[in-house]
Design goal:
10 strands, 3-stranded antiparallel β-sheet, 5-stranded antiparallel β-sheet, alpha+beta, 11 helices, elongated
Length: 330
């Protein structure tokens, strides 16, 4: 996380801003000078506090909502609080053990990611998000075809991570077992070592350049290969990220505008905007925080997002995070 410098604020102004932010986070109510005078721990009058608050407002760190006599933090105020004023306490050991017990490494990866997202949501009572691991595409090790009937074939792709992908293909004409073997040999010669997208491009290029000179066997082989890699290559993971606790955000006044809430839930459904944010954080050094419009995504203007990458054996594979209304803290 990048620490921004704010030389225009002296220690007294920083302390008052810190107390104001913490008070607003706790109570959700605008903070007045009298309350700040009592809770700041400084021997200052309410009038002096008001003068400091006026300076903070002029600098854009706090603002007055509506006609309220109190003040609340702005995005700029939250940013200073996060960068330079907040005190981060390490998680106690026993709490760490409890969390580790709920995230058992022997679980299926998909179940583990679902548990992590749900756990984030449960702990914070907000929205938890976890992106699925991003790995380099698998390459083809072997292609086989198994005849199920005269016009039905099982295509078997063995990938370099010992993944096996199967697809049942319907043909327009009868194909014998020997023709299937010839087709498999033809495709293996050209596609081994390529990922599915590269394999599809290679087949289309082969067809484009040599179609006139191809015999029936070659055309059948390419047709089989194209159907196999097109169908399998277009299949994406069911989810690129897992989201839990979306409805937790419905209880916050900050998101009471039904139009904004509907847009936010639409973003949760399509996931593209969230994935774009998580991708920005994949190579981040530790925790990264977006406050309001810092995300660059208009749909999250009223929200904040805190993320951290996760890794396996030293390789960063994905990102986990929490989304919450901009004017509240995790």
């Amino acid at each position: 996380m990048t620490i921004r410098q704010h030389p225009e604020l002296n220690e007294r102004a920083r302390h008052i801003l810190k107390v104001l932010v913490e008070s607003y986070i706790q109570d959700g109510q605008p903070v007045g000078s009298r309350n700040l005078a009592r809770s700041s721990g400084l021997d200052l009058s309410a009038a002096t506090i008001r003068n400091v608050m006026a300076d903070l407002e002029d600098m854009g760190y706090i603002r007055a909502p509506h006609t309220s006599a109190g003040r609340i933090p702005t995005s700029q105020g939250y940013r200073l609080f996060v960068d330079a004023l907040v005190n981060i306490k390490p998680l106690e050991q026993h709490a760490m053990h409890i969390l580790q017990g709920q995230l058992k490494a022997e679980r299926d990866p998909a179940a583990l990611i679902q548990s992590a997202s749900s756990l984030l949501s449960c702990i914070t009572q907000l929205t938890g998000v976890v992106s699925l691991p991003r790995r380099n595409p698998s390459s083809i090790r072997q292609i086989e075809f198994l005849s199920l009937s005269s016009r039905q074939v099982l295509a078997i792709l063995v990938m370099n991570r010992n993944e096996v992908q199967n697809r049942i293909i319907q043909l327009d004409a009868d194909v014998s077992s020997s023709e299937l073997q010839q087709a498999a040999n033809f495709l293996n010669e050209r596609l081994i070592g390529k990922d599915l997208q590269q394999a599809r491009a290679a087949l289309l290029e082969e067809m484009r350049e040599h179609r006139v000179d191809m015999n029936r066997m070659m055309l059948s082989a390419i047709e089989l290969g194209e159907k196999t890699v097109a169908d399998l290559g277009d299949q994406k993971q069911d989810e690129d990220c897992v989201i839990a606790g979306e409805t937790n955000l419905m209880g916050y006044d900050d998101l009471s505008d039904i139009t904004k809430l509907r847009e936010l839930f639409a973003a949760f459904t399509r996931k593209r905007d969230i994935l774009g944010l998580l991708d920005k954080c994949l190579q981040a050094d530790g925790v990264k925080i977006f406050i309001g419009r810092e995300s660059g995504q208009a749909v999250f203007d009223e929200c904040s997002l805190v993320t951290a990458p996760y890794e396996v054996d030293g390789e960063q594979l994905g990102v986990l995070g929490v989304i919450w209304p901009e004017t509240h803290s995790v």
